[in-house]
Design brief:
249 residues, alpha/beta, Rossmann fold, eight-stranded mixed β-sheet, three-stranded antiparallel β-sheet, 7 helices, 11 strands, 19% strand
């Protein structure tokens, strides 16, 4: 089954929206997030990093600067963080979020949660992260991207669907892909802390964004193929409230 058939497809608990550009995709995603915040000012957001959500974050910043959004009561949890990088490191995901969103809105810094990549107690950090999500009432809306092999966060092909937040060893492909962001390959972290697929599936709503034709094939496989750990995102088929926004160009 292909999905270049229509601009909008609705399945069992799944909505798929196609846009003609990255900007349109970003705006549609930001519309959903902003509506969540306006209707529920104390909402709990799950956030993602990478190039795909940058446009979405910029649109949210624009609306905040116009006075249309208030982040003062919003609580956030990020999907993952490199193990071994401090939050001040330019390639850490905390640095990314501060740069592309948090430092440009009125969010309470105490409400920001990102795994501590410098923790000396991995088990306690992971358990504490899961407990913090539970104490906040769970994630109301989780923003996701998708890798070309179907990975979500750092949940690579073959990852168990039963895991909550945990430490993962990065695959050679992931290390190679991230090497362009570092001065040399040897500087790329080999491990990361990530929410597991079980953590992600606990979110009340999920918003998955994917940019460009290179992602269409894996989206087709993830959303209409067999549910298998070899395509981690395929488990999203079972979520009761999944929205996918994909840019076709």
């Amino acid at each position: 089954m292909t999905f270049i058939l229509d601009n909008f497809i609705r399945g069992m608990g799944m909505k798929i929206i196609f846009t003609d550009s990255y900007d349109q995709m970003s705006r549609r995603a930001a519309n959903i997030i902003s509506a969540q915040i306006i209707l529920h000012p104390q909402t709990v957001l799950g956030l993602a990093t990478g190039t795909t959500p940058i446009g979405t974050y910029q649109q949210l910043i624009n609306w905040y600067e116009k006075g249309d959004l208030d982040f003062s009561q919003v609580i956030t949890f990020n999907l993952d963080e490199y193990y071994g990088l401090s939050g001040e490191h330019p390639q850490s995901y905390r640095y990314f979020m501060d740069t592309y969103l948090f430092n440009q809105i009125n969010i309470n810094k105490k409400n920001i949660h990102i795994p501590n990549g410098m923790t000396s107690d991995i088990d306690a950090e992971c358990a504490g992260y899961d407990q913090a999500i539970e104490d906040a009432g769970g994630i109301d809306l989780q923003l996701l991207g998708i890798g070309r092999n179907g990975h979500i966060g750092f949940n690579e092909p073959g990852s168990s669907y039963e895991k909550l937040t945990h430490l993962v060893t990065l695959t050679e492909n992931t290390i190679q892909a991230n090497a362009r962001l570092f001065a040399k390959k040897e500087e790329v972290p080999t491990k990361a802390l990530t929410m597991g697929m079980k953590s992600i599936m606990h979110a009340k709503r999920i918003l998955l964004i994917a940019n460009g034709p290179a992602k269409i094939q894996i989206l087709n496989q993830a959303l209409y193929g067999s549910i298998t750990p070899e395509v981690p995102a395929s488990i999203l088929q079972l979520h009761p409230d999944l929205t996918v926004i994909a840019s076709q160009k």
